[in-house]
Amino acid sequence: VKTVDGDHEIQIVAQVPGLTEKDVDVQVGTDIVTIKGEKKEEKKDNKSFSTVSESFVRTVQLPCKVNGDKVKATLKDGILTVSLPKHDQKAASK
Asked: Which of 25, 49, 53, 82 has a CB 3.0–4.6 Å from the CB of 12, allowing a cystine?
């Protein structure tokens, strides 16, 4: 997981190979992000049946408060990018 602190937003980039959007859950607080992923795979042949499950949870403490209502998450080619707009201190004080 890599965190990029820009002028107006923070981006979290995580490699999640083999996972789809339905396999990933992103939860955002004011200064924390939790990424959960789970992949279940069923294997069948004539003699046996098995289920393989892989999961992870990663929590990232953010360097500042973010606007949780405007978070965008995209998943493409096994790369999850979460864009978190920084909380505007000027707008909050008005």
From this structure: 82
